[in-house]
Amino acid sequence: MSGGKVLVIGGGGREHALCWKLADSPFVQQVYCAPGSVGIATTKKVECVELDIKDYPAIAKWCKENEIEFVVVGPEDPLANGIVDALTPLGIKCFGPTKAGAEIEANKDWSKTFMNKYQIPTARHKSFTDAAAAKEFINTASYPALVVKASGLAAGKGVVVAANKEEACKAVDDILTDSKYGSAGSTVVIEELLEGDEVSILAFTDGETVSVMPPAQDHKRVGDGDTGPNTGGMGAYCPCPLITPDQLLDVKDQVLQRAVDGLKAEGIKYVGVLYAGMMVTKSGPMTLEFNCRFGDPETQVLMTLLETDLYKVIKACVEGTLKQLQVTWNTKLSSVGVVIASKGYPETYTKGCVISGLTQVSSLPGTEVFYSGVSRGANGSLVSAGGRVLLACARAGSLRAAAAAATAAAALVDFPGAHYRKDIAHRAFTNM
Ligand code: AMP
Ligand code: GLY
């Protein structure tokens, strides 16, 4: 066999999609995934390896012994903890920003100051470490200062969109006074409430050039019609029509390119994926947040539409030659992913339930299954092992057809207590 070997760090549905797409490249001989998962290991050409992802010298040693061409880092935590800073000097090429670059996600206070400095459109805000001062601001601000955020990484949980000033003040107490998110909440960012449609705009970058991916939309709430508690994401679709082509160009120039240029001006060469969480308001797209990595579950749908070989794209990013590569996407198809979750999720959920219907789903044309929380039961069958268990993804010639196919695929997968949303992409239909 010829071709390169690559290592993906992580083990969720996003990393499954990245492994699947990398394995599809004729230039890739073997994809390794650490720690990976039982589900990821079911993919052809993908092998999971037991590496301690905090032990950087051990990872570097293993990469050298196994002639790894580059490492793709999936989640934010290792990036924010400096995995790229540790591996790069040891001669390992990495796709993902350094610790300083990851601040754009891991430190919202820093990120907002950065956005203001480089005139990246975003909600007005103020940061506080003192609860009394924060509450005083909520009560007197000239704009609805109702969004309260823990500045640090809080596994997607540290943001409260308050219905009124009392709720916003309570969020300040939870975060600053009661340390609900530990040190991630030693600073709060209080923001102006923005209204509109949320769209995820991700871009590949080599630190100079940005190559923007088609717009996608995530579904955070657990229930149909965007009801119930927030989750890690119950589904996604792409392309999302809730942002116009002109607005998309603005996001490319005024948000993503400006951020990469600004980071460079700050002495940070940002390589990897820059994810802009945008609110498309009446007065145009505004940046809610940056993430320093691929989104989950956006990546699962995006990878099914990427035409260019992912290995080539990542290689161009790590080698600084992205400008010379034309990254193309399938513009004739839409892709919809429906997450199937365990009973109880996003609260305490059941595990160990035998999953049926997977063979039927994988035989459907244009359909893929990406695993997030799957393990092997005593008799060798696949069983649920997480809150979000898997995502059924379908492509079709229209968003409506793709949504219908993905929902039908999700209906074929079963285990006791399984639940999924039946309305993924609905905002695209009500607004079209
Ligand atoms: P973040 O992690 O900063 O993106 O916030 C998480 C979620 O909170 C976003 O996906 C939005 O749904 C919501 N959110 C954050 N900031 C705002 C804002 N300024 N106005 C309205 N909603 C917001
Ligand atoms: N889908 C949202 C995220 O990955 O942060």
Topology at a glance:
Blueprint: E1 4-10, H1 13-23, E2 28-35, E3 46-48, H2 56-65, E4 68-73, H3 76-80, H4 83-87, E5 94-95, H5 99-106, H6 108-117, E6 125-128, H7 131-140, E7 145-150, E8 159-161, H8 165-177, E9 188-192, E10 197-205, E11 210-212, E12 217-218, E13 221-223, E14 227-230, E15 235-238, H9 245-265, E16 272-281, E17 284-291, H10 298-303, H11 310-319, E18 334-341, H12 358-362, E19 367-371, E20 374-376, E21 382-384, E22 388-396, H13 399-412, H14 426-430
Parallel strand pairs: 1-2, 1-4, 2-3, 4-5
Antiparallel strand pairs: 6-9, 7-8, 7-9, 10-11, 10-16, 12-15, 13-14, 15-18, 16-17, 18-22, 19-22, 20-21
The structure holds adenosine monophosphate (AMP) and glycine.
Can you characterise this structure?
The chain has 432 residues and is of the alpha+beta class. The protein has three domains: 4-98, Rossmann fold, CATH 3.40.50.20; 130-186, Dna Ligase, domain 1, CATH 3.30.1490; 197-430, ATP-grasp fold, B domain (D-amino Acid Aminotransferase, Chain A, domain 1). Helices cover 31% and strands 27% of the residues. The chain has 14 helices and 22 strands. It has helices at residues 13-23, 56-65, 76-80, 83-87, 99-106, 108-117, 131-140, 165-177, 245-265, 298-303, 310-319, 358-362, 399-412, 426-430; strands spanning 4-10, 28-35, 46-48, 68-73, 94-95, 125-128, 145-150, 159-161, 188-192, 197-205, 210-212, 217-218, 221-223, 227-230, 235-238, 272-281, 284-291, 334-341, 367-371, 374-376, 382-384, 388-396. A hairpin with a 5-residue loop joins β20 (374-376) and β21 (382-384). It is globular and about 60 Å long.
